[in-house]
Amino acid sequence: MRKIKELIIEKSLLSSALVTIAVTIGIILVLSIEAFRFFSEVSIYDFFTDTQWTPLFTEKHFGILPLLSGTLLTSFIAIAFALPIGLSISIYLSEYAPKSFRKSVKPLLELLAAVPTVVYGFFALVVVTPFLQEIIPNLSGFNSLSAGIVMGIMIIPYISSLSEDALHAVPDSLREASYGMGSTKFQTAFKVIVPAASSGIIVSIILAISRAIGETMIVAIAAGQQPRLTFDPTVPIETITAYIVQVSLGDVQHGSLEYRTIFAAGITLFVFTFLLNTLSYRIRKKFQEKYE
Amino acid sequence: MNNLRKNRLKDQLFKYWGIFCTIIGLVLLVVFIGDILIDGLLRIDWEFITNLPSRKPEKSGIYTALMGSIWILFFTTIIAFPMGVAAGIYLEEYSKKNKLAGLLEINISNLAGVPSIIYGLLGLEVFVRIMNLGASVLAGSLTLSLLILPIVIVATREAIKAVPSSIKDASYALGASKWQTIWHQILPASGGGILTGVILALSRAVGETAPLIVVGALAYVPFAPENPMDEFSVLPIQIFNWISRPQHGFIENAAAAIIILLLITFIMNGIAVYFRNKWQKKWK
Q: What range defines the domain where residue B34 resides?
């Protein structure tokens, strides 16, 4: 009797765990089926080479490049802003700061990651853009610069916290050996600790990039809704995610070609983040083995 | 200048640069909250919370959105909490080191990195269309539950891992079965940690906008939901809607609604941190 009860419990727990597999299969199926229907009407060649994305206009073009360039541009700005600051914070907190300071600052910085992204969007549109317009007069009201910078602020804690964990995990014996040779903290940090923690730091950067590519609300609010193939950060653009939001807000008929465009855009986004996540998982696994 | 002094100077310079960067992060947080308080604090009064949305900014309130958020939060909790904890228990206590375990692990880590808007597309097709739930509270809650499931699972595993094995051994030595050990020993001992993770996951769900927009949540709902099949709006969508309007009055409304949303998020984070500290002390 007891054995049967135990078995039933184990199987029901297992089924909960299997839900996660079902979710992945669900995502892949849903995206592929709708994208397949999309590509039966639009040629894949056009999708990757056409330089215009105008599915909601009368003269339709289905080139993903403008959305892709918008996504990469905002993500690049975000990373360029967050990487130096985030890494400096992590090295400072791990190698220089007093313990008590580190303990109180880390949760505060992590609070930056807890702020809902729609709030960051507000910040980008209402505070950062007007401020930047004082410096760059021809900056458009919607632009990738301000959206990118605010996205950078949002991902600082991802980089700083995860990298700090990696730096902190480096055994103290390495530090002591380096100090014993007469190195300064700076030399120890950059020549010994950072190389030793490099895989953990790389994982944090990859996760930050993947986060930036998938970020939606900041770019939907502050970067505009004009897909264009450009790397000029001062003009309105549109990202893949912002396009999905734009279509979802409108009145698009289910089963129409317009409806399917969001799945074609979605699968492009999914493939990018999937590759980045898999890469970071691989590196993390290798890194764990190193210290065990 | 000799080498030694150069190195010391570099060391000092980097230290100040590090302090500067850390402070920038904190200053941005303060500027940011300060600005929103200035824009929106005066707008908050009882009527703002109890009024229905309206075309006139000064008459608009967040009642329907706030109620929608509470409904969504409630259903997301009762779906994601048991499922996530059960999966976490399975992976930590039952799963053997085989192919399935490896697959589950890499899969959960991958799901945690899938952009939230993709979950919206999944919810739109599966819950709204195939299961025919429409753009309802239930469809939204199911979508968000799947979104936070990986976070709950990871938190549960971490909390269970932290329980000393002596407790488990003692329970088995007394003749308890595996499930008895889990139910009477491991879960009570790891409860604080699990709760911390669940609350953090829910605080993320409260702030999610994109997946719910994709699922079809509306920006304008004249009534608060009365059952799980009703249409709904949530606070972040209401904020998004107000931000996209040109009149200045709506920007003020957005700031005021943001204050309420941040209050909810920060209180949830505070509770989570409280549980974490209380629970960490227990094992020392």
A: 3-43
- Residue A11: closest C-alpha in chain B: B90
Q: What is the pLDDT of residues B225-261, one digit of tens each?
A: 888 888 899 999 999 999 988 788 888 899 999 999 9
What is the distance between the alpha carbons of residues B235 and B257, in angstroms, rounded to a whole number?
7
Interface test with A, best of B3, B21, B36, B208 (most A CBs within 10 A): B21
Element containing residue B253 per DSSP (H, E): helix B248-282
Report the residue of A11, A16, A181 to disrupt the B interface, i.e. the one with the largest count of B CBs within 10 Å.
A16
Q: Which amino acid is located at A78 in the chain?
A: A
Residue given tokens 């980045």 in the structure block:
A276
State the nearest Cα–Cα gap between A150 and chain B, in angstroms.
Answer: 10
Report ipTM for this prediction. 0.91
pLDDT, tens digit, 9 for 90 and up, residues B34-54: 989 998 888 888 888 888 888
Residues A240 and A174 in one domain: yes
Kindly state whether residues B17 and B134 are assigned to the same domain.
no
Structure tokens at B234: 């949530």
Contact B149, A22 (CB under 8 A): no
Owning domain of residue A205: 65-291
Provide the domain count of chain A: 2
Least confident of A202-211, A281-290, B25-34: A281-290
Same domain, residue pair A16 and A157: no
